[in-house]
Amino acid sequence: MPDIKWITNNSLTKPSHQNEFSFAKVNSVQQFHAGFPGYAPTPLVSLTSMAQSLGLGGLYVKDESYRFGLNAFKALGGSYAIGRYLADRLGIDIAEATFEVLTSPATKKKLGEMTFVTATDGNHGRGVAWAAAKLGHKSVVYMPKGSSPERLKNIQREGAEASITALNYDDAVRLAADNAQKHGWIVVQDTAWPGYQEIPLWIMQGYTTMAMEAYQELAAQKVKPTHIFLQAGVGSFAAAIQAFVLNAYPDAPPKVVIVEPHAANCIFRSAEAGDGKPRFVSGDMNTIMAGLACGEPSTIAWGILAAASDMFISCPDWVAARGMRVLGNPLGTDSRIIAGESGAVTAGIVSLLMTCSDLSQAREELKLNSSAQVLVINTEGDTDPDNYRSIVWDGAYSSPV
Ligand SMILES: Cc1ncc(COP(=O)(O)O)c(C=O)c1O
Question: Is 397 domain-assigned?
Fold first, then answer.
């Protein structure tokens, strides 16, 4: 039996915040991003041969490694949140806060230079640093202990004052909040907690550009997804997509499955506890899925996922490694996808659900069969290139099945 745990949500309800992810709101987020230099929809790759081999009707991968040339989806959140914040400070609507307006001399004169601060495993900080620099502001970024030096360099390259701390992720978030208070900086954190809701909600709304693109790209191929697998750290990314798909496919929303590493499975544990309250994981949370190594669910995200997601899965690191190899070694005429650890775990779990007899009950419960049109999102490319090679070339974290 592979060491994979899953739990079904038997009490689905309408989540709070669903209206914040309406079609109209998500449309306006996409308009905002479309005005940014370098914006282009990321590819939606159809893995036809893989779907056939696994016994699925279709398997689609939205490849966010192409997002703004930053190798991960995260800049969508930081850029929209900073844009919303600046629009508020200017007293204008986000629809008027175009890139040209936000970077104009008049805006600079009115607002001066601000400092945005955040804590990150890598991708979010790189996105905040990139967005702050593009909009003419400063950024400070704190990383948890054990963070990849390559990821640190990528953040510094975007102009941030960035460092690796001796803290775990959740404590690095607290450091960012404390220093913001001391120095008058603005916290742009991708997780909500009691009393800090507005900016994380904007970040979540920012993520929905990728969901709208996927919706448009699938519609162009006349495909309606039946299943979406989403990886979770604090859950903001997954919850944003979850809330949007309820609005995008109101008559028959796709089943949504949330996937986490065992070492940081706070959403899974919260679902397992079954009382609606979030549960925390503490300590170092050692996992190769650095982007998912978060032990405290975002309060907004947990509310949405608890109400609306169909299944929660907790899995070991080798599932992500398998996903990286599966996507990097395509079948037939399928395209090759370079996926990092946090990006690949959902492809890894789909491949296992379809082939591993020990998981047949989960497969049947989800109705994953030849009628299923499955969407996964590759949320990052090879953001840790050394680890990418050791997994894909040398077979590190090999599958025990
Ligand atoms: C590559 C990648 N995928 C997924 C996630 C998960 O996002 P969230 O923390 O909002 O659940 C992250 C978070 O940093 C990430 O970097």
Answer: no
